[in-house]
Backbone:
């Protein structure tokens, strides 16, 4: 492979900027600018000079041996003072070294995958960790990056390999007396793996919401206090408010961190019959987003008020404009005075945290499809097992297909077409 280099920290002025070089010629490139490179896994302060001996910067220099670096290749890192001029000069000089080229987006991580330092699920976990904005996103991404999904898949894979080997031994000795019936053990292994795989697949949707963010829609009639409530929750004037009904025409979104969960609060157009063409578009959008939202807050003017949206488990009902009530209730809220807002936010947080508890370590739709594919083959294998020894060769093939599906989960097979898409989301220095 080519030896590649890139700025591994953010562009712009900073306290420290890191330039990473990876590949077979990394050490040669480092020695072109640093006379005495430190030994592997050691850091040392060194003067970096250009080919004419002119001082570029005094930098912390690190080196890593083949197979002991992030990429699995020899790596040299220059930790420079974060001056844009220093970084630009160093990058220009490296670009002039024969055999070096600028890395493509995600190429360092891609080499880590190709060199066996990470599996594909860990690569996706690393991408999620870089994008994490809340504590729940960070925790979830760290689990995947640490290899939890790969280790779990390996347990299932080992059980299925054991089951397949038992069955294939029976096939191989079909013409002889086999003293032990392996069917009960095979069935136990299949059922145990299938149950675990189904449970993991069921948790993907929730894990995806943690990764991408939950949506909570505030819905209600016009002028019931939805926009004022949104502003109160957000702590700023995110939506226009007025005493005139129908002020909100489009969906207003505010992103929040609620107890470590990423949540987007949606303020929607007031629900009513209208002849106004533009307002009707806003109402249609409100209904659509409310149907897709993870949680809805029904803001009512009276307890008996009904909406053209069926409530789901966990949805929250509140009476709006509590500041106008003579008799207060626990189920009322006022964005104007802040009364009941803390109670509402707590209720939203609790509901979403309870749902988050069902999240597994598989976090993407790709993971779910691989798990469901494996489960489908396991189900077919169990049915074939009931049909007796004449069908064992087909059962063994179903188990091999289930194993291949698990292998695709962590990137061992059938994922080449996904790699360009996955790595395109990475920044240049990663």
Residues:
């Amino acid at each position: 492979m080519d030896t590649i280099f890139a700025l591994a920290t953010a562009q712009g002025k900073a306290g420290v900027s890191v330039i990473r070089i990876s590949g077979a010629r990394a050490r040669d490139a480092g020695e072109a600018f640093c006379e005495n490179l430190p030994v592997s896994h050691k850091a040392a302060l060194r003067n970096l000079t250009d080919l004419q001996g002119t001082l570029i910067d005094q930098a912390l220099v690190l080196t890593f041996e083949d197979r002991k670096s992030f990429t699995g290749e020899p790596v040299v890192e220059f930790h420079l003072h974060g001056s844009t001029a220093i970084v630009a000069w160093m990058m220009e000089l490296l670009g002039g070294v024969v055999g070096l080229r600028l890395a493509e987006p995600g190429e360092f991580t891609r080499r880590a995958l190709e060199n066996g330092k990470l599996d594909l699920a860990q690569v996706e976990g690393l991408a999620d960790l870089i994008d994490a904005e809340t504590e729940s996103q960070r925790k979830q991404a760290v689990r995947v990056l640490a290899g939890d999904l790969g280790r779990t898949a390996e347990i299932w894979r080992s059980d299925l390999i054991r089951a397949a080997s038992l069955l294939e031994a029976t096939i191989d000795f079909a013409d002889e007396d086999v003293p032990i019936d392996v069917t009960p053990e095979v069935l136990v292994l299949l059922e145990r793996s299938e149950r675990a795989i189904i449970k993991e697949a069921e948790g993907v949707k929730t894990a995806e919401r943690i990764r991408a963010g939950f949506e909570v829609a505030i819905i209600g009639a016009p002028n019931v206090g939805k926009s004022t409530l949104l502003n109160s929750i957000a702590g700023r004037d995110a939506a226009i408010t007025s005493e005139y009904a129908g002020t909100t025409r489009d969906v207003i979104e505010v992103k929040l961190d609620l107890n470590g969960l990423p949540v987007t609060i949606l303020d929607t157009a007031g629900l009513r019959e209208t002849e106004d063409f533009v307002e009707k578009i806003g109402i249609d959008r409100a209904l659509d987003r409310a149907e897709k939202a993870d949680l809805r807050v029904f803001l009512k003017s009276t307890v008996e008020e009904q909406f053209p949206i069926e409530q789901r488990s966990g949805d929250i009902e509140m009476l709006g404009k509590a500041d106008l009530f003579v008799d207060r209730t626990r189920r009322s809220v006022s964005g104007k005075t802040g009364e009941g807002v803390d109670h509402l936010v707590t209720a939203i947080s609790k509901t979403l945290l309870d749902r988050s508890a069902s999240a597994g370590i598989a976090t993407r739709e790709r993971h779910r499809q691989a798990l469901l594919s494996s489960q489908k083959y396991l189900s077919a294998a169990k049915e074939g097992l009931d049909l007796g020894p004449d069908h064992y060769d087909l059962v063994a093939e179903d188990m091999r297909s289930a194993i291949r599906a698990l292998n695709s989960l962590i990137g061992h097979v059938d994922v080449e077409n996904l790699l360009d898409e996955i790595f395109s989301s990475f920044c240049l220095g990663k």
Observations:
- Residues 242-247 have pLDDT under 50 and may be disordered.
- The first helix runs from residue 26 to 31.
- The radius of gyration is 29 Å.
